[in-house]
Specification:
The complex is a heterodimer of chains A (113) and B (242). Chain A is built from 4 helices and no strands. Chain A has 113 residues and is mostly helical. Chain A has one domain (9-112): Fumarate reductase/succinate dehydrogenase, transmembrane subunit (3 helical TM bundles of succinate and fumarate reductases), CATH 1.20.1300. Chain A is elongated, with a radius of gyration of 17 Å. The N and C termini of chain B lie far apart (53 Å). The chains are: A mainly alpha (113), B alpha+beta (242).
Amino acid sequence: MIRPHRTHALWYAFILHRVSGIVLALFLPLHFYMLSLALTDPAQLDGFLVFADLLIVKCAEFALVFLLAVHMFGGLRLMALEFLPWSPRQKTFAASAVALAFLISTSFFLQAM
Amino acid sequence: MSETGEFLQVSIWREQDGNGHFESFQVPRRDNQTILDVVAWVQQQADPTLSYRFACRVGMCGSCAMMVNGAPRWTCRTHVQKVADDNRLEIAPLRNLPVIKDLAVDMDPFFDKWVAAEAVFEPSQTRDDPMPPINPQDPMRIAASDAIECINCAVCYAACDVVAANPDYLGPAALNRAWSLVNDSRDDGQDARLKAVSGGGGCHNCHVQQGCARYCPNELNPTLSISGLKRATAKSLLGWGQ
């Protein structure tokens, strides 16, 4: 359970940035391994690409693209916060990061379907 | 204040010599009742051995901060109706500080970090020098003034998860004070201050959760101050001046 002192929008933005970063760190080695199969074992890669056409995998890719995008926009938000003059619209920036990530991931999902 | 006929179910942390537990009390609910009123009622009407700290009761001194239903609050200015959960209150000592007894915490670590952050005014002139003019519209003076109304209540310190995870972290209040002095044109301690706030427990530890700004009773923004210190220390490192 999230402790009461953490129940505010910018803490959720913090935890989303951290969790998305951890998930991406776990994903990227797998991603590069699968890419390497194009050189080392094309047949296995083809088998994986067939598997990747399944709807459930497309849904997982939607989540992945969302996490990637929200981590990117969240990172831009943090860099702006630390290097640019302060803006009082921190919650708006955090909400915008989520909204843009949702827009990009949904566009990706519709394109992939 | 009038009686409403309702009762508050109040759980209060009792601790002595390192052994602690919550104890339940029934407190009459009144209109316009603050959390400090509830604690005072328990101490005066139910259990005189209850220890807690307060002084001014009007939001000036910063003595009475406690955890109320899991969040840090200045109890003298926090109304029961704002924070009670179905007439239930859980009142505990401030987080991230050692408990002396019951609701009274030892503030020494909090103030030690103000000193460690060089958050102390270092005069650049003596009393024999002429009074330097201060332009209240100067951007640096505005930044200093924005951060200056801290009442040392340690609410931000209790709200900060980085303090909880890293005991060496100087914390939002000390860094906020350091930022107000970085912007004070009369101060002559900037080199030592920037070195102090960029060390192992310094401003770069902040994870920008912004709980300090969320709960500061005086609506200060220590996260703003800490991000200012991050920029100032980065500029200093690159030799761009402050």
